[in-house]
Specification:
Length: 213
Protein backbone atom coordinates (compact mmCIF):
# COMPACT_ATOMS: atom_id res chain seq x y z
CA UNK A 1 0.00 0.00 0.00
CA UNK A 2 1.35 3.42 -0.96
CA UNK A 3 1.13 6.13 1.70
CA UNK A 4 0.50 8.93 -0.80
CA UNK A 5 -3.21 8.19 -1.39
CA UNK A 6 -4.03 8.17 2.32
CA UNK A 7 -1.94 11.29 2.98
CA UNK A 8 -3.51 13.29 0.16
CA UNK A 9 -7.06 12.20 0.98
CA UNK A 10 -6.47 12.96 4.66
CA UNK A 11 -5.13 16.44 3.93
CA UNK A 12 -8.09 17.32 1.69
CA UNK A 13 -10.48 15.90 4.29
CA UNK A 14 -9.05 18.05 7.08
CA UNK A 15 -9.53 21.21 5.02
CA UNK A 16 -12.93 20.22 3.66
CA UNK A 17 -11.86 21.67 0.34
CA UNK A 18 -8.30 22.48 -0.76
CA UNK A 19 -6.24 23.22 -3.84
CA UNK A 20 -3.14 21.24 -4.69
CA UNK A 21 -0.62 23.68 -3.27
CA UNK A 22 -2.42 23.66 0.09
CA UNK A 23 -2.17 19.87 0.17
CA UNK A 24 1.52 20.02 -0.71
CA UNK A 25 2.08 22.68 1.95
CA UNK A 26 0.37 20.58 4.62
CA UNK A 27 2.36 17.46 3.78
CA UNK A 28 5.61 19.43 3.94
CA UNK A 29 4.44 20.94 7.25
CA UNK A 30 4.06 17.37 8.56
CA UNK A 31 7.51 16.46 7.19
CA UNK A 32 5.96 13.85 4.92
CA UNK A 33 8.34 14.77 2.09
CA UNK A 34 11.15 13.43 4.31
CA UNK A 35 9.59 10.17 5.53
CA UNK A 36 7.35 9.23 2.59
CA UNK A 37 7.04 9.46 -1.20
CA UNK A 38 4.98 12.66 -0.87
CA UNK A 39 6.97 14.73 -3.35
CA UNK A 40 5.25 17.54 -5.33
CA UNK A 41 4.89 15.51 -8.52
CA UNK A 42 3.41 12.56 -6.63
CA UNK A 43 0.97 14.80 -4.74
CA UNK A 44 -0.39 16.55 -7.83
CA UNK A 45 -0.56 13.30 -9.76
CA UNK A 46 -2.47 11.63 -6.90
CA UNK A 47 -4.98 14.49 -6.76
CA UNK A 48 -5.71 14.27 -10.49
CA UNK A 49 -5.91 10.48 -10.50
CA UNK A 50 -8.23 10.31 -7.53
CA UNK A 51 -10.46 12.97 -9.09
CA UNK A 52 -10.71 10.74 -12.20
CA UNK A 53 -11.53 7.79 -9.96
CA UNK A 54 -14.36 9.66 -8.25
CA UNK A 55 -12.66 9.87 -4.86
CA UNK A 56 -12.30 13.64 -5.10
CA UNK A 57 -14.49 16.26 -6.75
CA UNK A 58 -12.51 18.90 -8.66
CA UNK A 59 -13.81 22.49 -8.67
CA UNK A 60 -12.33 25.12 -11.00
CA UNK A 61 -12.15 28.50 -9.26
CA UNK A 62 -10.75 31.95 -10.03
CA UNK A 63 -7.32 32.26 -11.65
CA UNK A 64 -4.37 31.75 -9.35
CA UNK A 65 -2.91 34.92 -7.84
CA UNK A 66 0.46 33.54 -8.90
CA UNK A 67 -0.62 33.64 -12.54
CA UNK A 68 -1.50 30.83 -14.88
CA UNK A 69 -4.76 28.92 -15.33
CA UNK A 70 -7.58 28.80 -12.78
CA UNK A 71 -6.80 26.86 -9.63
CA UNK A 72 -8.50 23.55 -9.02
CA UNK A 73 -9.90 22.92 -5.57
CA UNK A 74 -10.55 19.36 -4.45
CA UNK A 75 -13.30 18.12 -2.17
CA UNK A 76 -13.89 14.62 -0.79
CA UNK A 77 -16.68 12.55 -2.27
CA UNK A 78 -18.54 9.86 -0.32
CA UNK A 79 -16.38 7.28 -2.10
CA UNK A 80 -13.24 9.22 -1.20
CA UNK A 81 -14.20 9.32 2.47
CA UNK A 82 -14.82 5.58 2.43
CA UNK A 83 -11.46 4.96 0.73
CA UNK A 84 -9.65 7.15 3.26
CA UNK A 85 -11.01 5.18 6.20
CA UNK A 86 -10.36 1.86 4.45
CA UNK A 87 -6.71 2.81 3.93
CA UNK A 88 -6.41 4.15 7.48
CA UNK A 89 -7.80 0.99 9.07
CA UNK A 90 -5.65 -1.23 6.87
CA UNK A 91 -2.52 0.73 7.74
CA UNK A 92 -3.17 0.51 11.49
CA UNK A 93 -3.84 -3.23 11.56
CA UNK A 94 -1.34 -4.67 9.06
CA UNK A 95 1.81 -5.65 10.98
CA UNK A 96 3.96 -5.54 7.82
CA UNK A 97 3.21 -1.98 6.71
CA UNK A 98 6.11 0.20 5.61
CA UNK A 99 7.13 2.95 8.01
CA UNK A 100 5.75 5.75 5.82
CA UNK A 101 2.30 4.16 5.68
CA UNK A 102 2.19 3.51 9.41
CA UNK A 103 3.45 7.06 10.10
CA UNK A 104 0.67 8.52 7.96
CA UNK A 105 -1.91 6.36 9.73
CA UNK A 106 -0.73 7.52 13.16
CA UNK A 107 -1.09 11.09 11.92
CA UNK A 108 -4.77 10.45 11.17
CA UNK A 109 -5.60 8.03 13.99
CA UNK A 110 -7.68 10.63 15.85
CA UNK A 111 -10.14 10.65 12.94
CA UNK A 112 -11.42 7.39 14.46
CA UNK A 113 -13.20 6.82 17.75
CA UNK A 114 -10.96 6.03 20.71
CA UNK A 115 -12.47 2.55 21.00
CA UNK A 116 -11.87 1.70 17.34
CA UNK A 117 -8.29 2.99 17.45
CA UNK A 118 -7.53 0.70 20.39
CA UNK A 119 -9.22 -2.26 18.67
CA UNK A 120 -7.24 -1.76 15.44
CA UNK A 121 -3.92 -1.40 17.26
CA UNK A 122 -4.69 -4.48 19.33
CA UNK A 123 -5.25 -6.38 16.08
CA UNK A 124 -1.87 -5.09 14.89
CA UNK A 125 -0.17 -6.48 18.01
CA UNK A 126 -1.86 -9.86 17.48
CA UNK A 127 -0.63 -9.98 13.89
CA UNK A 128 2.96 -9.20 14.89
CA UNK A 129 2.92 -11.80 17.67
CA UNK A 130 1.50 -14.46 15.33
CA UNK A 131 4.15 -13.66 12.72
CA UNK A 132 6.93 -13.85 15.33
CA UNK A 133 5.66 -17.22 16.57
CA UNK A 134 5.66 -18.59 13.03
CA UNK A 135 9.22 -17.39 12.41
CA UNK A 136 10.65 -18.60 15.71
CA UNK A 137 9.17 -22.03 15.07
CA UNK A 138 12.36 -22.76 13.12
CA UNK A 139 14.57 -19.90 14.25
CA UNK A 140 15.29 -19.26 17.93
CA UNK A 141 16.83 -15.81 18.37
CA UNK A 142 18.13 -16.67 21.85
CA UNK A 143 20.67 -18.99 20.21
CA UNK A 144 22.02 -16.06 18.22
CA UNK A 145 21.93 -15.28 14.50
CA UNK A 146 25.19 -17.16 13.86
CA UNK A 147 23.37 -20.48 13.82
CA UNK A 148 22.26 -19.61 10.28
CA UNK A 149 25.51 -17.98 9.22
CA UNK A 150 25.40 -14.31 8.31
CA UNK A 151 21.96 -14.91 6.75
CA UNK A 152 20.72 -15.26 10.31
CA UNK A 153 21.16 -11.51 10.70
CA UNK A 154 18.21 -11.03 8.34
CA UNK A 155 15.95 -13.04 10.63
CA UNK A 156 17.49 -11.30 13.63
CA UNK A 157 16.54 -7.94 12.14
CA UNK A 158 12.93 -8.97 11.49
CA UNK A 159 12.43 -10.57 14.91
CA UNK A 160 13.94 -7.55 16.66
CA UNK A 161 11.72 -5.24 14.58
CA UNK A 162 8.65 -7.29 15.52
CA UNK A 163 9.58 -7.12 19.22
CA UNK A 164 10.02 -3.36 19.03
CA UNK A 165 6.79 -2.98 17.07
CA UNK A 166 4.82 -4.91 19.70
CA UNK A 167 6.31 -2.89 22.56
CA UNK A 168 5.74 0.44 20.83
CA UNK A 169 2.17 -0.41 19.82
CA UNK A 170 1.30 -1.59 23.33
CA UNK A 171 2.68 1.67 24.69
CA UNK A 172 0.51 3.66 22.29
CA UNK A 173 -2.54 1.61 23.27
CA UNK A 174 -1.86 2.33 26.94
CA UNK A 175 -1.57 6.06 26.29
CA UNK A 176 -4.80 6.12 24.31
CA UNK A 177 -6.65 4.08 26.93
CA UNK A 178 -5.27 6.46 29.54
CA UNK A 179 -7.05 9.38 27.88
CA UNK A 180 -4.32 10.86 25.66
CA UNK A 181 -5.34 12.94 22.64
CA UNK A 182 -8.74 14.00 21.35
CA UNK A 183 -10.49 11.42 19.18
CA UNK A 184 -13.52 11.69 16.90
CA UNK A 185 -16.65 12.70 18.75
CA UNK A 186 -14.82 13.85 21.88
CA UNK A 187 -14.58 17.58 21.29
CA UNK A 188 -12.37 20.11 19.54
CA UNK A 189 -9.75 18.19 17.52
CA UNK A 190 -6.07 19.03 17.28
CA UNK A 191 -5.51 21.36 14.30
CA UNK A 192 -2.80 19.88 12.13
CA UNK A 193 -3.20 21.88 8.93
CA UNK A 194 -2.15 25.36 7.91
CA UNK A 195 -4.67 28.11 7.32
CA UNK A 196 -4.89 29.91 3.96
CA UNK A 197 -1.83 32.14 3.65
CA UNK A 198 -0.26 30.87 6.89
CA UNK A 199 3.52 30.60 6.57
CA UNK A 200 5.00 27.11 6.61
CA UNK A 201 8.36 27.09 8.43
CA UNK A 202 9.13 23.62 7.03
CA UNK A 203 8.37 24.31 3.37
CA UNK A 204 11.06 23.18 0.94
CA UNK A 205 10.56 26.24 -1.22
CA UNK A 206 11.25 24.20 -4.34
CA UNK A 207 8.94 25.38 -7.16
CA UNK A 208 6.90 22.90 -9.17
CA UNK A 209 4.63 23.49 -12.15
CA UNK A 210 1.76 21.94 -10.21
CA UNK A 211 1.89 24.78 -7.66
CA UNK A 212 -0.01 27.00 -10.10
CA UNK A 213 -2.84 24.56 -10.79
Amino acid sequence: MSAIRMLVLGAVRQHGRAHGYQVRNDLEYWGAHEWSNAKPGSIYHALKQMAKQGLLHAHEIAPSTAGGPPRTEYEMTKEGDEEFFRLLREALTAYDQKMDTLSGAIGFIVELSREEAVALLTERVRGMEDWRSAVTGYYTPEEGPGQLGHIGEIMNLWVASADFGVDWTRGLIARIEGGAYTFAGEGEPFVGVLGEGEENPYATGEPHEGDLG
